[in-house]
Records
---
Amino acid sequence: MKQSHLFTKTRREVPSDEVAKNAQLLIRAGFVHKEMAGVYSMLPLGLRTLRKIEAIVREEMDGIGAQETRMATLHPSEPWKMTGGWDGVDVLFKLQSRTEKEYAIGQSEEEIVTPIVGEYARSYKELPLMVYQIGQKYRDELRAKSGIMRGREFGMKDMYSFHTSQEDFDRFYAIAKEAYLRVYTRTGLVAKVTEASGGSFSEKISYEFMVLTDAGEDTILYCSACDYCTNVEVAGDLKEGENCPKCGGSKLTKAVASEVGNVFDLGQRYPKALNYTYKAEDGSDYYPIMGCYGIGTTRLMGVAVETFADEKGMVWPKSIAPAQVHLIELSGGDAAVKAKADELYADLMKAGVEVLYDERDMRAGEKFADSDLIGIPLRVVVGKKTIETGQFECVRRQTGESFLLPDAAAITKDALYV
Amino acid sequence: MKQSHLFTKTRREVPSDEVAKNAQLLIRAGFVHKEMAGVYSMLPLGLRTLRKIEAIVREEMDGIGAQETRMATLHPSEPWKMTGGWDGVDVLFKLQSRTEKEYAIGQSEEEIVTPIVGEYARSYKELPLMVYQIGQKYRDELRAKSGIMRGREFGMKDMYSFHTSQEDFDRFYAIAKEAYLRVYTRTGLVAKVTEASGGSFSEKISYEFMVLTDAGEDTILYCSACDYCTNVEVAGDLKEGENCPKCGGSKLTKAVASEVGNVFDLGQRYPKALNYTYKAEDGSDYYPIMGCYGIGTTRLMGVAVETFADEKGMVWPKSIAPAQVHLIELSGGDAAVKAKADELYADLMKAGVEVLYDERDMRAGEKFADSDLIGIPLRVVVGKKTIETGQFECVRRQTGESFLLPDAAAITKDALYV
């Protein structure tokens, strides 16, 4: 993608109405546009990153046998009234309508997915069953000051699972947990899992996936020897430095973290409220056990910004960067340099490398400042020196490490595989 | 994808509350789930087809230089009040909120895209500019009886263009028109372009893309010698069989058609209402000329069902089918047949062919009926005869033509290229 073609531009000044670092940087770099508090449009660079996050989440959900759908966001009121959510869920947006029908817009999809699955999975032979979608959710939040980390409209992957027993839910939860941890690892983040209360969704236990980041709203205690982790809010008298209450093999470490995923053991609440039973092997009808698994995709994007940014701008992990290479041409009007940069651009594109090509007629300092702000992992500079030495100057955004590479093949290898 | 893994099932009975053929077939085949009139969830097979349509639309929009975004669907009321749409657009859904803020959900995005583009394209040098998105739209329709062809929630690609002159709009419109026609051709449809009045969006001229289909709501007159086409509603005294008023070279043909895309020449209405001006070469400030270009993606899916279905079920063009091959195993418990089918499935997957593999323990008649209903272009049957002859029996869904192919390579070639 040529940078002159990109309709967004960077800006130096910090937006005055944003306190969250993620929103400040994403707006300055032209990744998102703020429509109002808690509502952002994704602009071309932001959409590229978000779609990479979505693709990683999709691969991991497909990998554990979940089936992708795209459920309606405009909801009838009837199932919400049956579950008690119509009056009980305070963040549920309701719509005014010209007809007598009442509608809500989706803040979660239990009221839609349960009847769908209930229509098809009538026998124990069809269970367990896992269904998911990736899309927009809407919540009537009273306050929204965390940029894309907590929005009134936001992107979410929500998965729902249906089981014939608590044991089977537990079995699948262990599989889903590993898939979730792979999602975070693949996006460059480090996550721990805590147990917490289920909030308005459930009276049962829930699990929170906490990413270690200084921007987090939570404080956790975790053990490095086993998978023990707890939110300090529910930790009672436990303190940092004490022995792990689970394995005893290590002392507890305290860390600030941000919730980027959760699992709710919903029990039989929704199948009961929505009259979904399956026929068991003994011929009787039972309500399935249900689980709900969320990952905020836009939230994950915001957490990645907060976690990796430095004083110069954003720093994207390669897996979710809007491009792998930021190619910067410093021709100053020199036709040979321009031709060399154009050639490298074409070669990298041909090799499947995603390139943002800054071929704008601007000073080197401005181009470098934009490049630092946008945060693409590998910067490759083509200038007069490139013609003299036959080497391309490369700089890693994350470490500042600079090195020379001789050709497109070497750059491709670095950008795609190293 | 193994059919036993797919959580949806086909059903024989026609849903009693659907009059539209597209909804009847899509529900019976398990492609969509009806939530209420005009609102459908996309189930795994339906989502596969919809994403293929989206990918074709995306390629064609990218190809004419438009930049993809994902704009907010939760809209603040302010821009809607500035344009008059808050009170003037009757299908606009408004939300009840816990705060004092007023919101709408997007039925079109002029109120969002104009300020976004206005923030970045401040000079004539940045224009023309084309921005698009593919996503959900919401309209408070009084009636919704056409299945996924006219929904209260539906999928749409909406593009917006901004120009410094009417001539430049006209130039780009001609390019966009060709791209639209390619979208329809690639999805197997035949489209004509009519001129019509702009409806509530505009006082200016608009263009409608009409696909020839017996299920259409409109009647058009078109010339086969030139691109003349008109809706009979605005055709005055013109009649079928008369000479084309544009080229005179052929007689007019009458046809029933369905609108699957439109273009509105919005003039300066939205930039004026939303205070977006650019600096021209002469240093003065002007309002850009704006165009809006829509393709209903779910509507296109519905039209494809209506156009190609026969008495046995749906018939998908290869480009938008949920899979290219429907592999049917008729082992009846014979291990050699099962092994042969498994092997072919693995080989086709490896070659990049999308396969729905019916390995369920069911009678041949049921499997064939399901296959006819689902409508995948090429059916490949593996039975006892396959072991004897070493040949795979293939049947084209569209024509019923049957033929033998010797191996996975020949089937791959047929499925991917022929």
Note: The radius of gyration of chain A is 24 Å.
---
Amino acid sequence: MSKRLGLQTIVFQQAPRIASCSTIAGPKEGEGNFGSYIDKLVDDPMMGQLTPEKAERMMLYLACQDALAKAALTEDDVHFFVGGDLLNQIISSSYCARDLGIPFLGIYGACSSIVEGLGLGSLIVDGDYADSVLVATSSHYQASERQFRYPVELNIQHRKSNQWTVTGAAAAVLSKSGTGPKITAATFGRVLDYGIKSPNDMGAAMAPAAADTLCRHFADTGKTPGDYDLILTGDLAAVGQKLFVQLVKEAGYTLGSKHMDVGASMYKPTQQVGAGGSGCACSAIGILGYVVKEMLQGNLRRVLAMATGALFSPVSTQQGDSIAGIAHAVVIEA
Amino acid sequence: MSKRLGLQTIVFQQAPRIASCSTIAGPKEGEGNFGSYIDKLVDDPMMGQLTPEKAERMMLYLACQDALAKAALTEDDVHFFVGGDLLNQIISSSYCARDLGIPFLGIYGACSSIVEGLGLGSLIVDGDYADSVLVATSSHYQASERQFRYPVELNIQHRKSNQWTVTGAAAAVLSKSGTGPKITAATFGRVLDYGIKSPNDMGAAMAPAAADTLCRHFADTGKTPGDYDLILTGDLAAVGQKLFVQLVKEAGYTLGSKHMDVGASMYKPTQQVGAGGSGCACSAIGILGYVVKEMLQGNLRRVLAMATGALFSPVSTQQGDSIAGIAHAVVIEA
């Protein structure tokens, strides 16, 4: 019997629980709007390491260990580690998988990775292929800047449309049983490309995919914005979220105060981050930090959590390719 | 009811069919030992494109289109595209997903990607989450050389332990119904690291993971080498396969003539490729070209197909990290 609804949505009949989650981030994120929702704030974004790549990896591993501990599980109890990150060859996740020793499914969806992972992990648990799955992702401002744009030391002037990669990591254990919030559905997205070519304007590149996935979700399920307490997008930030809201409106849905973009909300205006936050950890902290904690406190009941990814590399940009976008969504219910 | 067997193996109760597959490769692969098993051989590895990255992407798209056509399906009939490749941010797969318009699950397992994809795609079909899933991967000698090692134009001398990245792509449609070979089980691997640091010796870095996954598969299922007509590894090549066979022997299993490594067998000795072939397309052509065609001709009945990936990046190498390895396995039955 198919578990599909409409063109792109999957309904989980044995909806997996978010048994535990853990978030970690640096001082800039601590000073931002979600500081109180982050489990562990570190003073040193370099984590005492020589390179930002190694610092990112350490944050990811710590978040994974903390999520396991909170779920009272060891690595041997978890059947899959589903992880991905922004760094070339997803080295943060790969080396973390080595240190964890859990069978590894490496994924890449750029900043959409957390929801690709939560959706895939839910499918694996819902389908009885695992009792528990660990899902995690990470990003680091310095590691991302020097990989995608310029080394931080060059002190390049940011544009208003630039986004600031969140330094942090987040992990969740999905399980068959428990009392945490449930993941009840997933809408996996298509890749859309509206021809945006500037790596300094990723929000605009991702907005069409976010609008597409949201409209597909509504069409598949018959739901409307009124069915959700919150419709979260990951890191469209100030420029991208305006386009997103406009595209969704043109498709016949008014989101109003139901919508929040984590990237646009991550930092305070005084923090000078251009259009807002981005990176795998941005949406991951929004979902596994803010949404889950607000649910556990009874302030949110039903959330559509989307994360968006900009699919490109410095090589593709240099070769004249435009930046494609993707967005995945999961429904989280208290 | 759990569909797990032992620690790492999943048994597919509604074993998905390989409804169709397609392989494409360049002239060097055409002159090699698997030339007659490759569906489309092209004279120009650059595919008339200005860059090898764009050539790789075109090969991947052509393989996907051909697999869909052979299965008599359009993009709208396929519920997921599961794809990954070696290039930073898996741009070959991402842009191919854009051109296909099928909901996309991006994966990264380096050269193990085809089996990560076949295993994951089988799980999705077996679990009734999709009627059909398209799985594909690609690699390109020039694109890989200049990303991981040196631009081809530098004319760097290869060592004997170096491997030659296969230029090509392969795609398969997995479906609930049909008459093609079935994927009956999958063993997803852990990441192992024996401390190998040379990016010129990836076979040695991947061999421990291959041995680990094979031994786990045997332990989980109670099977032995005698239960299979062929035990295939992806791209350990000459150096890595010796270590693999030795490690497996130390664990109590003698493979003998049951074992074939695609990388070691891809090219002829006269082709001067160091230790042999590698790249995502190497194992993919071995599995979706050689194995599937031999099964359809009645020459193979039961194959354990493994693909191995070396998890590292030039950045991790420069920062002193060793190269971790992963291996995934699927059981394919006629």
Note: Chain A has two domains: 14-175, 182-333.
---
Amino acid sequence: MVARESQLVLGLDPDPDRLWPAATAADSSGGSPGTPAEHAARAVAEHCRLVIDAVGDQCVAVKLQLACFERLGAPGWTALQQTTQLAQQADLLVIADAKRGDIDISAAAYAQAFFGETPTPFGPVAGIAADAITANPLLGTDSLEPLIRSARERGAGVFVLVRTSNPGAEEVQELGLVDGGSVSDRLAGMVARLGQAGLGEHGLADVGAVVGATIPDRLAALREQLPHTILLVPGVGAQGGMVESLAPMFAPGPAGGLISVSRAIVAAHHKLGGDAAEAALDEAARLRAAAWNLSVSTA
Amino acid sequence: MVARESQLVLGLDPDPDRLWPAATAADSSGGSPGTPAEHAARAVAEHCRLVIDAVGDQCVAVKLQLACFERLGAPGWTALQQTTQLAQQADLLVIADAKRGDIDISAAAYAQAFFGETPTPFGPVAGIAADAITANPLLGTDSLEPLIRSARERGAGVFVLVRTSNPGAEEVQELGLVDGGSVSDRLAGMVARLGQAGLGEHGLADVGAVVGATIPDRLAALREQLPHTILLVPGVGAQGGMVESLAPMFAPGPAGGLISVSRAIVAAHHKLGGDAAEAALDEAARLRAAAWNLSVSTA
């Protein structure tokens, strides 16, 4: 992250009807066989490859929205694996934006899917080997521990939803508690506790928190409760968040936060005009510099 | 449900190392080619087929734990689709136990994955066509609406997590609120509101609630707040819940609740001895009768 002078995470949530034209053309032109799902999944993987080629140098990670791959079925899952490998070959971390949360035995199965492998009578089946996953904490600590344990074993991480970026987030997450604070404050406490055993370089923990860019006042308050936590901050761009209002995320230093941007980069050409790859690079470079400069001036 | 005199949901969370012996043998013996993931996924699909064959007549639905399929990658997703189709051919409803919850645009993508189809330049890609999905409400109403809208269009349903069955559930779900009640009470209110537009036969809504069998006192209290809601109740058996303590779920009548049982049926032969299929049928028949008799005596 520091070597690249970037805290920018490239969000990839590919919509088969809005891929970069070159990605769709690549699969349409050859007359290659396959079902619509297979064609669409190949085009999605090619789109992700093109976007990573264009802007990967500006970024430190990619965040893959699982829903966008799952809707293409088995071929979509193959595209997810291909994109994961491709991003890692480009020295990018892969954050599986899965928002999973389930009881212990099922959480352990998700850990096998995303971090580990599944023992079978036919030999072990490797998961997608993500570097991090996003997780939903509604089911409590015992639902997160199997993911964290598995992540920790391989030097990966878990980002727990604490305060999301969507308009309806406050409906549950900001409910006021009898004992003071709100649900999201309590989730922050859970994250701090779970991360204590996993403090790494820069004094930062391997259990991170997702906090939306759209509510800078809450981000500042939650950062005070989470001094050792890497914040993954979505919501810049299409959802209305501004990099300039995010200074508190870098209170622990430049490694203290990751800014995830999806549509504002991938669809930059709709706003800026011109070639998709060039527009994406321009926007990614601008966002990378804005975040880095903010982090250096904050620390 | 009434025609079958059953409220029993067969939970399928297949572990490739604990499949019924005949399922593993079927794929091992033929010397068929494939990767470990392909072999394991075929064995998982065969296991699900055998279990459905054995106990399907006692049940009204199957609940498929997505984590168990995802950990086998693309072949696992194929097994998920095959099992969905097979269960529906056996006149069983399919509940995708996905516990998804994401911001609006991603929730819409999950709706395409589970209920609808995804438009692509290569033609539409069908999702798995589940009859219901489980959903996590931490992100609020706007994260649930795309799933509910899509479900409602095709006569399917959404079961929202309100109070889960795991030991750590109370950590977040039972936090006391300044305005009275707990988080789970508030989630129940959300479910009631979201279901108002989808009241169907028996006066029951198409937005259901997941409430664990392990906390019968909370189940009774939440039922009072949710008089028109179908409760999906996991946690009977391996997690310690007892059918006999669940009478309040049937307050609206026999169609008011579904009892989901996984390991207690599929692994019944570990406890009862004998053939896996026979033991599963014995246990499923016992549970079906216990639930039906309870529902008839409650109503």
Note: Chain A touches chain B through 78 residues (CB under 8 Å).
---
Amino acid sequence: MKQSLVIVKVGGKIVEEPETLGKLLDDFNSIPGNKLLVHGGGRSATALAEKLGIESRMVNGRRITDSAMLDVVTMVYGGLVNKNIVAGMQARGMNAIGLSGTDCNVMLSDKRPVKDIDYGFVGDVRSVNAGFLASLIEQGIIPVLAPLTHDGRGQLLNTNADTIAGEAAKALASAFRVTLIYCFEKPGVLMDENDDNSVIPYLSYYDFPRLVQDGTISGGMIPKIQNAFEALQAGVSSVLITKAGNLDRLTGTTIAL
Amino acid sequence: MKQSLVIVKVGGKIVEEPETLGKLLDDFNSIPGNKLLVHGGGRSATALAEKLGIESRMVNGRRITDSAMLDVVTMVYGGLVNKNIVAGMQARGMNAIGLSGTDCNVMLSDKRPVKDIDYGFVGDVRSVNAGFLASLIEQGIIPVLAPLTHDGRGQLLNTNADTIAGEAAKALASAFRVTLIYCFEKPGVLMDENDDNSVIPYLSYYDFPRLVQDGTISGGMIPKIQNAFEALQAGVSSVLITKAGNLDRLTGTTIAL
């Protein structure tokens, strides 16, 4: 029987403000067994860019990353957010290690080809060094992954944190029984976006097209759920969509094939 | 017989500009065997702080680190400089991992007590996780250490890169035959500061007080050499002071007890 591994992705202001971060790390600490955290940091990146007079341009929720913006996200994701999360974990007795995709080749990627849109220095994941991550986890270490990858030729690349979590989950599924948890601002996928009590407890591959068609699921939730299905098809045991505040009880929307 | 380990500390603009960084990494790559790199990044930190309207205050060459400046150095040292060095190493076939002191508790420190000067969020190293560093090195991985530590209670602290290198060297001396190399802008300790051909090839513990007294050695070189003596007393095999451009031939000033 494989050991379990819980992979949590958290983004948004919860990881960027000391008070909410503290609560998140307490909740994360309450999850038993092997763990891995993937974080975002977009609000801080946008804030730093603004202070530096660098314009943030988003297309379909993705950040256009020119050279100056790449430096910003390298500083914010790889430095500020990552190291503060790790320090907060260490303070709670969790032996964490902060990693970007370039550290030990954890995630190699290819610069996204220019089609309609030039996303700039954005990488699509090519490979994951699952062996290295697994060896850390087996030593009781908690990897904390920043959403940065590299092309193996010296170029850092900005990569969506949901994608990082999904790719890590898929790559580690051969070594662990993986539960992938996407945290966002709502307690799950909602039937009514204005009613937090309308969480869909169980969302299957067969329900999905209908819920997209009738508009129940829209926007950034669509790629998130597509990532979830891909992860399940690649051997991830279960995927949960919830809000960070529910990490201590693990309620939300379970995605199933 | 212990395996050898070469620890190189480089600071200054050489690690902060793509062109000089490339040459440095080529030279570093030419050093055979186990390696560890410690970097600075002060110029970039000062430049970013200036853009953000944060004043850089230095006392005796040390940076006063208030909360805003701590964020700056966390971004620059832990993110921008560290991740670009690691990406450059990976591109050259060196399997590097970027680490701050909080990652796997690599370096725990104590916030410096306020005496005459309040240095702010500056840490004096308390302990080094030599076991974790040694296990990486034994796997053929090159640790790349940013000059950041933490107090174990969630607080990141800014720590001088020379000190980081010295502490790493001392802590790893029981597992490896350690050579510690401090790179700075001159080819070694000079008899005449205006003549790069006046390198003192061999500087002993007995010569040191005289050379300080007659003014040959002054300023920031004094703590650097004191660090070197401490490292030797703690079991480090040899210490070399040189410039980064000489890393491919390892000439410079050898410090000896």
Note: Chain A has a mean pLDDT of 94.
